[in-house]
Amino acid sequence: MELKRVVITGLGALTPIGNDVATTWENAKAGKSGASPITHFDAAKFKTQFACEVKDFDPSAHFDRKKARQLDLYAMYALKAADEAIEDAGLEGEGVDKNRVGVIFAAGIGGLHTFEEEAGYFALHGSEQGPKYNPFFIPKMIADIAAGHISIEHEFRGPNFATVSACASSNHALIDAYNYIRLGMADAIVAGGAEAAVFPAGVGGFNSMKALSTRNEECEKASRPFSGSRDGFVIGEGAAALVLEELEHAKARGAHIYAEVAGGGMSADAYHITATHPDGLGAVIGMENALKDAGMKPEDIDYINMHGTSTPVGDIGEVKAIQKVFGEHAYKMNLSSTKSMTGHLLGAAGALEAVLSVKSLNDNIVPPTINHEEGDNDPEIDYNLNFTFNEAQPREINAVLSNTFGFGGHNASVILKKYKG
User: Fold this and answer.
1) pLDDT for 340-355, tens place per residue?
2) Least enclosed by CB within 10 Å: which of 170, 174, 202, 297?
3) 154 catalytic, yes or no?
4) Of 113, 249, 344, 372, catalytic
5) Is-catalytic flag, 167?
């Protein structure tokens, strides 16, 4: 069976540095930090009092009151990003069989705020007559419901589900979409991820693990991947979506083609429930699998959008894995972590970083890793590698590899390349 080629025809984003793709990309190139004091709740008593929140998002501008009552914030973010990608791709125009258009939309956690609200309400208001839960509690909370809402809104009847693998979730969504399309099981799939966990349970839970940065006095500089003084990740929120489409289907309807999906690789660390392997063994396998799937050599990759969360252990393991997979070519590539600007969007991270990788391919610009200060080095990191510190760098980019790694040891790497007919 000959596998079909898969291209990207639509992009959407709602992020801490922009409420659409264009604004997000401009701010990423400019090295703008999305970190600021938390506004979703009073964080004064928390160890971490800042996050990368979505800004100036008014749900009433997008959803009527009845619809909004049915949606957790994460699902609102998902619908907004998906709508942009679908409109960008013209996926509701002529030449589209909606029975063959799917939605695979990820979340690492899902409706955490809804769960928090409902559990708290019952604890305060439960009585001998029984619990007082909102009838929308379950359908607002579950991690698959964003995919369901996107499907319902646009009447897409193809494959429809969510991928849940912590911070690797939306890269797994992209890989699943890629595989369904190249196997001929769908013409197009809206793939992506959404997360909205900047609430007490999310921040407090990650604080208890000592996973978050506590640099409250200079929060804009807190996400500093690969720097010696990094002290944890900055939690982010938002959503990103991409329309993946079979090449001939896209050409037949005259769709704009941004890039081609070259391959995807998956693996497990089989090591620890939260920590990545210190030598990046699972990451090595995932990247090697992606290269094999794409039929590419290490030297074919020009840029890696790294997982790079700014945690003391995780950054080291990923650097070691890249050096093992790419050898001497690692010193010829650009590397960067856009999480230094957007924060860590958890289950939405892979989708957002895929959108930024597509824009890098199109514009031949590598977005920076911000917040690195001269001399702030980690003795376990090789600074002869080009981490694209502090300023975007122009270069010819023909192929990008994007990494995501999640709690549970889940690893997913996606390779995107320029579409050349």
Assistant:
1) 999 999 999 999 999 9
2) 297
3) no
4) 344
5) yes
